[in-house]
Amino acid sequence: MSGGDLFPLASAESSDFDYRESTGSTNADLVAEAAQKGDFAVIASLGQTAGRGRLDRAWSAPVGEMLAASVLLRTRTASGALLPVEAWGWYPLIAGGALRAAIDDLLPDREVTLKWPNDVQIGGQKVSGLLADLVTVDGVPDAVVMGSGINLTIAAENLPTPTSTSLTLEGATGTAAEIGDRVFTAYLKNLRALVERLAASGGDTSGIRDTVVAVCDTVGRRVRVELPDGENRYGTATGLDEAGRLLVLQDDVDTEFAVAAGDVTHLRYE
């Protein structure tokens, strides 16, 4: 069955919607084929078998119950120039905000939030994650492949982690394809609007930062940050800097540090 048959709404929102019944990774596929595809081309699958999460962790879900979809973003300013380098780090945050809004529209009675940098949660449980891969041409950044994995119809006993959920568990109705088409279509519309704002500003991220901070549930919380070297730091997340890094006021030294990469845990009882 073609992508247009399974995902008629999302197909209409993409310049090139390529549905694959099974693939290892939609991100890897789109990175490899980026040179032949245009802005807002999509590769999607309900049968991803070798997904990759943040920090290169393996990520998987039952076939047919999770939507993996990657979008090619080849954003240019009005003059046709590349965005400034400092703006590129905002793609995951923009995508997280766009997907959060799409799921919030689908489930208006649920508490849908964004956990820095780009996990979408419902009532504190993860329903979606996003991952960005850079596409370069002759060593120069050319585009970003923005991948998303959305738990659609996964039953409680089959969830990938104890802190996960799925859209059907939170009240969405329909088949995996029907739910996926609705939410991914809204995501593409939201993502396009935010990317166009970024392009129109010439890469000025100040307005985008306000939009993301407003929906980021991490800002204002006490957090534990596990850095890539294994060090744990505790503090209160105070905001995002101009590069999209999480700012944390550290408990023991009362100084602020910026997190570019690491695992952030929201602390409720510590």
TrEMBL record:
Pfam families: BPL_C, BPL_LplA_LipB. Residues 35-151 form the BPL/LPL catalytic domain. Keywords: Biotin, Ligase. One of its GO terms (molecular function) is ligase activity. Residues 219-264 form the Biotin protein ligase C-terminal domain. It is an enzyme of class 6 (ligase). Its EC number is 6.3.4.15. The keyword Cell membrane does not apply. SUPFAM superfamilies: Class II aaRS and biotin synthetases. The keyword Nucleotide-binding does not apply. This is biotin--[biotin carboxyl-carrier protein] ligase. It comes from Frondihabitans sucicola. The lineage of its organism: Bacteria, Bacillati, Actinomycetota, Actinomycetes, Micrococcales.
